[in-house]
Specification:
This protein is of the alpha/beta class and 155 residues long. The chain has helices spanning 49-58, 75-88, 150-153, and strands at 3-10, 19-24, 45-46, 65-69, 93-97, 114-117, 135-139, 145-147. The protein has three helices and eight strands, in the order βββαβαββββα. The longest helix is centred in the middle third of the chain and has 14 residues, at 75-88. Bound molecules: iron/sulfur cluster. Residues 27, 29-31, 34-36, 39, 70, 99, 119-120 line the site of iron/sulfur cluster.
């Protein structure tokens, strides 16, 4: 089950997109130096299709990309909800911020436009650092992944 803790319109998380970023709790990753340890806990409300519809309708027209920030406790649900967005909201792109080293096998790349992988590791820094271990991929129409991590570092 996914639980969402809070959400906001943001400009940095996905380059060239206005993003409705939804933070999910129940994070299993336990990264040392985690910026939001409250997301490890069982907090927030269940992320249902109705909750998703309500969020999208509330912010309709104000964003170009819906980002799942977390959800590593239930990648099957992340994939299912992203598929729902693709089926029902043709103009909205989808992104997933995962803290895992690899993209989970439950993920069908055709449901996503962007996927970030990699846990936060203090010694390598966040996505804005050239030394970062994390990668942001743009998913191309043929299913190939283009590494666009460099876009964070040009600014
Ligand atoms: S994935 Fe994000 S929220 Fe989870 S422990 Fe790592 S830094 Fe914290």
């Amino acid at each position: 089950m996914l639980k969402y803790f809070n959400y906001d319109i943001v400009f940095q998380e996905i380059p060239d997109e206005v993003t409705l970023a939804v933070n999910f709790s129940l994070c299993p990753n336990r990264c040392q130096g985690c910026h939001s340890p409250w997301l490890w806990q069982d907090k927030g409300d269940e992320f249902t299709v109705q909750a998703l519809d309500n969020l999208i309708k509330t912010y309709n027209g104000d964003f170009t990309c819906f980002a799942f920030m977390g959800g590593d406790n239930d990648p099957v649900a992340v994939n299912k909800m992203a598929a729902y967005i693709k089926d029902n909201y043709k103009n909205i792109k989808t992104a997933w911020y995962s803290g895992k080293e690899e993209i989970d096998k439950a993920i069908d790349l055709k449901n996503f436009d962007y996927i970030k992988i990699g846990p936060y590791k203090k010694e390598f820094g966040d996505l804005k650092q050239k030394t970062t271990n994390q990668r942001l991929y743009k998913i191309l129409p043929d299913g190939e992944k283009e590494d666009i991590t460099y876009k964070f570092q040009k600014k």
